Fold each of these.
Amino acid sequence: MVAMEPVFVLLTVLLCCCQARRRNVLLIVADDAGFETEVYNNSVVRTPHLRALSERSLIFQKAFTSVSSCSPSRSTILTGLPQHQNGMYGLHQGYHHFSSFDGVRSLPLLLQKANIHTGIIGKKHVGPGPVYPFDFAYTEENNSVLQVGRNITRIKLLVQKFLRSHKEEAESEGGEERPFFLYVAFHDPHRCGHSQPQYGAFCEKFGNGESGMGCIPDWKPEYYTPDQVKVPYFIPDTAAARADLASLYTTVSRLDQGIGLVLKELKEAGFENDTLVIYSSDNGIPFPNGRTNLYGSGVAEPMLVSSPEHKQRWGQSSQSYVSLLDITPTILDWFSIPYPSYSLTGGPLVQLTGRSLLPVLSSEQPWSTVYGSQSLHEATMYYPMRSLYKGPYRLLHNLNHLMPFPIDQDFYVSPTFQDLLNRTQTGQPTGWFKTLKSYYYRERWELFHTTLDPTESHNLASDMAHAALFEEMKAQMVKWQWATSDPWVCAPDAVLESRMDPVCRPLYNGL
Ligand SMILES: *[C@@H]1O[C@H](CO)[C@@H](O)[C@H](O)[C@H]1NC(C)=O
Ligand SMILES: *[C@@H]1O[C@H](CO)[C@@H](O)[C@H](O)[C@H]1NC(C)=O
Ligand SMILES: *[C@@H]1O[C@H](CO)[C@@H](O)[C@H](O)[C@H]1NC(C)=O
Ligand SMILES: *[C@@H]1O[C@H](CO)[C@@H](O)[C@H](O)[C@H]1NC(C)=O
Ligand SMILES: *[C@@H]1O[C@H](CO)[C@@H](O)[C@H](O)[C@H]1NC(C)=O
């Protein structure tokens, strides 16, 4: 027995060393948020909580969504697959009714199978349910989205509830604690004028304590005047747009304070040193040339990744190109869960084309390529586009370029767009960098040098000096479309015949 002792001690040491350290994930996604934060050097808007998070994060300067629409983007965040591959072609709610394919193996599904405790609080906006299962779910599916997505006191209490249930579970299992994945999806700072105009253009009055607005005890609204705001190049510099932006800023203050509350709960529950925190947004801000576009102003996203195990780059900025398609591979990597081998609709094996971001948390990576793919937003808004952003060049393929670019309902009624329409109709100066006509009618191919031409105004697609680059980028984009089983890979001038070996059959339609 005496001789056994050293072995026993050695075994114990080995077990302790080999046991992975406790690792959790908190994923925070804002709704239509952009760069209106202190983190991205907006010197007007006050966002102390996001700034504090950025001081413990790597700050991405080149992060992009692959699709500029809510449900499609959320489906790509939660599957790592572009919208054309996972099936969420457009908005999920109501009559739009888009859904991912039943066979998709989503992140929450894979985590649940790996015995990770999963929770969602806020805007889900993806389906079907069995593809996106969560153990703990307070979403618009069984609550008011204003309460679970914008009432930051309610969100704080729900985070408390999730973390408490997590600890109670561990206690009842005899201290054996499994990891958790908590997804907090704010509905702020999404527009509100279309659905709840009484609360203001961005729901900036909801819960501000004024008569009829209710109260959110934890929110101290920050107010801004239209002359204070910074107008990005893609928004008309008009009184209407400035007032719209001032409302957006106020709503951003609720988002920021909400993030502060969520992080405080995490810390007070003792999880701050073992939880990977990711902050981003689903698509560009809801202004002209923003959301629903694959231009830079529609797809560039704020992104913070805070890893307690990678302090070496905290507070630094990264120029590596990253995509929301990278979130699923990153979280799987963090939990050391392999992606399963399976195929959808009997086709080739599904492969993730995104990558884990963990390496860039240690040292800058030479990543300089991201892809984009959009099909619809609302059910009526069919306007398929594919894009490749590589180094300074952004290539866009507007498959149905002969159609006018579609406009969504909540953006249509926005003060900014109404004013733009009125000014255009009455021949007044619009203060915008485009005309409505050029916005509606696009070239089939657009190629921009985004550093020499940051507003993406000079199309180089038919410029002979860029012919070789154009062909090379086209080929690379099509290769990605094939790799991700894109049903639109042959459009618009051919038809995909996929019974045996998939092949594009020409239409001779003159395109
Ligand atoms: C903000 O500005 C500072 C100083 O010019 C710069 O070093 C930093 O990279 C900027 N950060 C972002 C996220 O743009
Ligand atoms: C919403 O669903 C969750 C389980 O998914 C449940 O625990 C919660 O009580 C439900 N909330 C409401 C208001 O029905
Ligand atoms: C926000 O949630 C808290 C806690 O549930 C509640 O007391 C408050 O009335 C809610 N505020 C609004 C505006 O609904
Ligand atoms: C987390 O790490 C910080 C800094 O090392 C330390 O001060 C704090 O006590 C730690 N928190 C927990 C819950 O271990
Ligand atoms: C645009 O014009 C319509 C009709 O003339 C008017 O009702 C509306 O107030 C105008 N909107 C803006 C933002 O100027």
Amino acid sequence: MAIQGVLRPGHAQIRVLNLEQGVHFYRDVLGLLETGRDDQGRVYFKAWDEQDHNSVVIREADRAGIDFFAFKVLDNDTLLHFERALNDYGLETSRMPAGEMLETGERVRFTLPTGHLIELYADKTWVGNDSAELNPAPWNANAEKGIAPIRMDHCLLYGPDTAAAKKILIEVLGFQLVERTLTPDREGEIALWLSCSNKAHDIAFVEHSEPGKLHHVAFQLESWEKVLRAADIMAMNDVPVDIGPTRHGITRGCTIYAWDPSGNRFETFMGGYQTYPDHKPITWTFEGLGEGGGLDYAHRKLHDTFLTVVT
Ligand SMILES: [Fe+2]
């Protein structure tokens, strides 16, 4: 087994201003499958091709944003290993009991210096993707409802001291730096793309004065044609689009940024290259992020909203 330790992004809990409006958007427009509701009033979803019970949880609140972002780890020994490693590094952790989230085992929580609550867990109930386990078809009817991404893929978070967050993810949790953008004076890093797998990124950060901010949670599609279909579905449903359809120079993903009804940005994208532990990080200058096409390779400009609009 090659991928061990932190396996992948597991779940994101997103705050929405109106629950039923949020359910309509995430279920009927984005096309996630509703998998449950709990006694705290939270609604759980998964993408059609995901195997575990949930990957997106929404709850109603007075302000939009993200409560926490979680990674699934290999097993309970790995969870204990990372809990101890975080403590040895000097970070406080706490445990959320099994069942506090539907169909989810114990979670280890800690706060990054950027102000984001991150969780690790080993167990979430396997529910499958409604395809046969023997000789399965490549897709099923769930793949056609709404935008219908195959998975919740990564997030981009905004907060202070991203350098310290990078150090924790790399030195304690085994992530690798895949791409970075330098500050205008080229003395530091304004943005970071990190991977726990061989995806171009599993989490990204932009340096920002306010802690704990969400730029976007991203959902993966299988083809450019499906990204264009997503744009059609957004237009049909009056979803406000931020950027795209276009391609990022950074990660090479082909993308649309848009906003849910509460103002949380989300991304639907396809592509991106594969990275391996022996690859060197790619560096972009601040000008490269904008005029160099790092953000938007087709239009080669830094959209104002990229650095200013977060929840
Ligand atoms: Fe993204």
Amino acid sequence: MRTLVTLLSLFLLGAHAQHGSEWTYSEGALDEAHWPQSYPACGGQRQSPINLQRRKVQYNPSLKALNLTGYEVQDGKFPMINNGHTVQISLPSTMHMTASDGTVYIAQQMHFHWGGASSEISGSEHTVDGIRQAVEIHVVHYNSKYESYDIAQYEPDGLAVLAAFIETKNYAENTYYSNFISHLANIKYAGQSTDLTDLDIQDMLPEDLHHYYSYQGSLTTPPCTENVRWFVLADSVKLSKSQILKLENSLLDHKNKTIQNDYRKTQPLNHRVVEANFMYFPNQHYALGSEFRSYLSKISENIEYVRKFVEQKKARRKSQC
Ligand SMILES: *[C@@H]1O[C@H](CO)[C@@H](O)[C@H](O)[C@H]1NC(C)=O
Ligand SMILES: *[C@@H]1O[C@H](CO)[C@@H](O)[C@H](O)[C@H]1NC(C)=O
């Protein structure tokens, strides 16, 4: 009997170790190159992140701005946890986002990807024309036609992520981030959690919320499910160098190693098309002001309007002949 119990517990221990062996980005048996062995979707054809190659992005004037509801300041307590891979904030279901096709997505959580290893301040997951920004924000949502995130995560149209970049040059402190960054000290160890109060997600996002890239992809961490509609904002958030350094050096993973470079390599685009609701002009400066970008898209909307008008005229003339 004793032997049986020992064998059984050994078996359970083994099963647990196998199941509990944490995936990583670059170390151990389950680094990102080996994710597909344990999580088959990670080897799929529609994976994220990707490089957003602006020259090849398709301008789609029918993509309207996202309607973000409940993103402004909210009272209450918002749990913020170190999950061993990143810092994650739980979001209230009063926060939601409506895409231009009318689909409503309910906010679930928000987390970050950053760099920091070998003094490189560069850790975004998506890149734009090959350039990796300092940090990437992911606000994860699920389709409101499903009852909960737990159900939606397995559905083909289940999820949507609103992503934004954080950049740093020699910016001063961004006070909208001070509260969040000071709370990192409370969750140094993996599994620890703390509460944020008076959360204002809109303040933590870029000023220009109108212009975005969009494509169909996956979760960027295991299980890499290919059911994510991505909205990557064109504008970025600005943080000071010391704020970025705090984000890169405050948290430890399950092995008490500093969480750094928690980003996945860009994945092949394959046959997907990336769309944007703004036009790309080759010598447009990266940090072009949002006002000017709005102005440019107004012009392109007008061009589109005239083009449609002319087409209708032509069609009418044809039908009269
Ligand atoms: C945005 O959504 C809110 C509530 O979901 C709605 O009241 C509002 O009219 C919408 N705004 C636009 C511009 O569609
Ligand atoms: C990490 O460090 C803490 C505090 O020193 C300790 O309690 C914990 O056991 C350590 N964990 C590992 C996996 O070494």
